[in-house]
Specification:
This is Lipoprotein. It comes from Actinacidiphila cocklensis. The protein is built from 2 helices and 13 strands; from the N terminus they run ββαββββββαβββββ. With 205 residues, the protein is mainly beta. It has one domain. A hairpin with a 2-residue loop joins strand 3 and strand 4. Helix 1 packs antiparallel against helix 2. It is globular, with a radius of gyration of 16 Å.
Length: 205
């Protein structure tokens, strides 16, 4: 796959021109509530007020996930998954630069470049990566009864889907596969969500 240089920036004009890392094809910079995740996606949910930004210490979170930091993106395994997160019926932004430590010029094999929800899996070795590892890098823990700062109970439920099919067991153990659409849905049953089963992948991803 053709590669090109992508500038990794923290915020607007912060460290601009200071750091570059090789990156794969760019994703379109659309608001997560407007990403073409679901077929017939005219009924897109409103954006949630829930905000889980990328951690300030990316390296610490990558270490907590049991993953290494690399000087450049690996090419032995190079795939992408897409993640949607919904809380109380509204879409939560998956932030840019999860798993990227700009000051140290290092990057995890599991990371994001923008806010489209595309998770890049670019490893120098063949390995399996899980939803739990990515959520740990994001500092938004996931388990049978927890999503970030939220817990199940009191009418609130947590459901996880892969390609539109609900998964059972520990959601943290879900493996990230090529071109899979993963949807994490937290809230009351009355909070209706059109669970996406596919993602409109840009050419080159």
């Amino acid at each position: 796959m053709p590669m090109h240089k992508r500038r990794i920036a923290i915020g607007v004009a912060v460290l601009a021109g200071a750091v570059t890392l090789a990156a794969c094809g760019s994703d379109s910079k659309k608001d997560p509530a407007g990403t073409p995740s679901a077929a017939g996606g005219d009924d897109k949910p409103a954006a949630s007020s829930v905000s889980w930004p990328a951690p300030s210490d990316a390296s610490a979170q990558v270490k907590a996930a049991g993953l290494p930091m690399l000087g450049q993106e690996g090419q032995v395994l190079h795939i992408h998954s897409h993640l949607d997160v919904f809380v109380d019926g509204k879409a939560v932004t998956v932030p840019a630069e999860i798993g990227i430590d700009v000051p140290k010029q290092q990057i995890s094999p599991l990371h994001t470049h923008d806010t489209t929800g595309v998770v890049h899996i670019e490893s120098p070795v063949q390995a399996e990566f899980t939803l739990g590892q990515f959520m740990t890098e994001w500092n938004v823990p996931i388990g049978n009864d927890v999503l970030g700062t939220f817990k199940t109970g009191g009418g609130k439920e947590l459901h996880v889907y892969v390609n539109g099919k609900e998964q059972t067991g520990d959601p943290a153990a879900i493996k990230l596969g090529a071109h899979e659409e993963i949807a994490v849905v937290y809230g009351a049953p009355a909070d209706k969500v059109q669970v996406p089963s596919t993602y409109a992948w840009p050419e080159g991803l």
